[in-house]
Amino acid sequence: MSTWRGAKLLTRYEWAMAGYGVIFNLILILYFLLFMTPLFIELRDVKDSSHFNGWMPNFIMLALIPCFGFFMNRASFNSWRVDHMSHRLADLRRLPISYRQIAAGKLLTVVSLLIPSLVLILLLHYLLFLHQILTPLQMLNYSLFWLGYGVLGSCIYALFEIMMTGKQYTILCIIFVVVFLGTCFAMMQAQWSIVLWTLEFAESGNWLPSLLAIAAGIMTAAFIYKLMAKLLSRRSLMG
């Protein structure tokens, strides 16, 4: 069985096992929209980043977007107590499945959940308020940047999730939150907003940041696929 075929089978299995996780993902999308809507509405009257340099919009976009590549199910919320990933890998190793197929299946699952989620979020963002700021082509430019960032971030999370125990991964996620908070407070002190910056380059017709973000996402996914397949052979299954 080819790597691609094995990856597709594993992805279908992950979607079938997600259960109510898909519903919780939709709830997260709704929360994201409700929380971000008043913050984005302020942008209609903003002309420079010095008037929109709060840390919260930057933190939400940077910290939450990669999370849309993961099912919000019991395994995700209970990783500290139960090492679901080690158990899952142990089950997969009993089957005639290669490490390359496991790595490709994991990343394909992440991307197949991330992209539809972000497309839905960005489309609703545009219909609700961003159509007052951006044209459809400018919105495409803006969206490509965050899609590229989402792929890059979610693939990095996927590598750590599959290579670490549940407790280690939970601690790492907490560290990431602290890093994001520190970064966003530093942006606020510098009176600079990445959210406003992405809107400004999209409005100006500058496609370079978006193309670089997409390229970075693709290259990161390719690199992590090879690295994950290599590291899986050394991965301990003792949680």
Automatic annotation (TrEMBL):
Please give the name of this protein. Answer: ABC transporter permease
Supply the alphabetized keyword list: Membrane, Transmembrane, Transmembrane helix
Q: Which domain of life is it from?
A: Bacteria
Q: Which residues cross the membrane?
A: 20-41, 53-71, 107-128, 140-160, 172-195, 207-228
The organism named in the record is Paenibacillus herberti
